[in-house]
Each structure stands twice: as structure tokens, then as C-alpha cells.
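Table S2 (continued). Query chain:
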Amino acid sequence: MSHRFLRRLALFAAALPAACANSPPEGNGQVAVALVSTGAGGVVYRLPAGTQLQIGNASSFFDRIALDGDTTSVVVDLPPDQYQISLVDAALNVPAQWTLERVLADNTSATVPATLSMPSTISVVADQATDLVLRFTVATGEVIEFTQGHVDVTLEVDQATATSYDLSFSQAVSVSNLGVTADSPAELGTVYPALGSELQLEGSLHIAGPWTLQSTEDACAPATIDSLDTPVSAGPLFPDHLAEARSAPDAHLCIHRFAGGANAVNIFFGRTGAATTPTFTALGDRQIFFGVAISFLVDVTSFDGHTLDLQALSSAHAGAGNLFLDATGSAVGSQDVVFPWYGAFLEGTTPSFSFIPR
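Corresponding output:
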């Protein structure tokens, strides 16, 4: 994860029959743009809906060419001249951060962030083909070149190994189990939620590594919590518990491998110290451990016990998920955090998360 490399793979598309059979009007040149490319492993990249190529010259010529159709390429005849060109989105803006549609070999699709590099001018010469290269850089690992027709227009996707990842998640969970010990402070008895109570949990993390092999079941990396919100909650206990735990200096994200080969993404964070939220400051001068574990089952195998393939996770996912909270505290005025208070298991009903390389 600490090394950045660029692997270039040129994929030349076969010339379309239409492009080969139809010559431009005499004296004109042609510009063609490939709209689709197939990369390594059968991955297909497509320009986003509404993408257009703007072409104009110093006189009166100006046109916009749609690049989001169902065809694999677009061919345009142009009079010989020097042209200003730009790629714009559906709102006719030039975004600082583009997105490409990526379709994997199993037909699952996702949008991935991409940075565009392209020339600002192009020369069209009479009766000649003109090269035009649109290059996008995305965070994974290869360069894919689109070449179309005898014009040799190329769209390149540079995939550079990601140095970090952003994970965002949203899930509705409900209390399926709540264990309370005899050592739990009596004041908490009024705020324990009932079984079946719901909590909406939303958050985001940044993972910069390094990744380490904890065992043949877990590969983990430190993470920073960027946001953590509970817009829906039955009572203050769990939101305050999450707020207390979130102030930990860092979190950890682990890819867990089950015995059958299935994977889960687990997020762990927690801290020990004095309370800062109303629910727990009301308990007096105590030291408290606040623990949190958030888990999502995923429909891909990213970790097989020896190799971690983060590209397999690089999309949006929906699957089973859950939340576990536990608290252990000290007696009033003591520094010894030895008394377990409660453990709560909340089962996800509509979990989803995305794992995006940067």
C-alpha cells in the first residue's frame, strides 16, 4: 500500500465496419471517439450519461457530440482546421472529478471516480485520420486504451494502485439482544431500549493502511472515522454510546474470512475514559470503556486467508449487517474499569456500504 505503480495495457478495438466502409466527404477529415472499452478480467468502462465532446474553431463552427449512446463509437466528419475541444458533462460543465461506469464480468456495475487528461486542441487535416486521446485515471491498476476506426482515436483509462480507501455505510438496525449485568448503574435502567427498538446508523471512514495479516481469518488496517450519525433512535443510550466511542484516536477495519470462504467487513473502535455525553456523565466520576463493532457480510471474496484483493470490494454492496455495543465501567471515584455493564446486539435490516479506492 505504500508503493504506487502504473501498469499500462493497450487494448485496440477492431475497426467498425461502418467506419471502414464510409469515407469522409472529399476534403474533410474524421474524428472518432470510442465509448466503451473492455479491460483486464472482462471489466467494461463506459463514459457517464450526458457526456459530450465540444468542438469549435476560431470562425463560426461549433458542435457538441454526444458520447453516451448505446453504440461503441461515434465518428464525426470535420472540415480541415484547428479546433478547440473539451469534454463536458450533462450540465455542460467540465468537472474536476469525473466518474466512469464500470461493469464487472459478473454484470455488477458501479461508478468509480476518475481524473481526465486530454488535449485542448486538435488539428483535422483533409483526407486524413486524426488521433485524439482521452485519458482517465482511476485508482486500481492498469491502463486501458480504446481505439476506434481508421481515425485511431484513443480513450485511455490509467488505473493506479490506490493508496487509500473511503468506506461509507448506512443501515437500519433493531435491538435483538440486550444483556444487562447486576453491576450496571441503576440510572441506566431508565434508558435501556426495548427489544425491537430501531436505530439508523450512518457513517464514513478513511483507510490509508498499512494492511497487516492478523491471522488466516483477518486482514486489518487502521482507519479514521470521518462521520458517524444516528438520525433515528429509540432513546439516547446508543447514540451517546457511539459518540463516546467515536472519540477514540483511531478505528480498525478488518476483512474477515469465515470457514466456508465468505467474507465480512468489520469495523472496530472504542475508548476508555471519563464520560462526555449526558447519559453517562450523569453516572458520576467513573472511568468507562465504550466498545463498538459494526459488521457487514459481503457477496464477494476479497480475502482468502493469504491474499487480500481490495479491488473486489471496490463498489457498492448490500447484505446482512449488524452492530454490537458493550460497556464496562468502574465504581464511582475509581480508575479500575472492571465491571461489565451491558452488551447489545442490533441486527441490520437494510444495510449497505461502499468501498471506494482513492
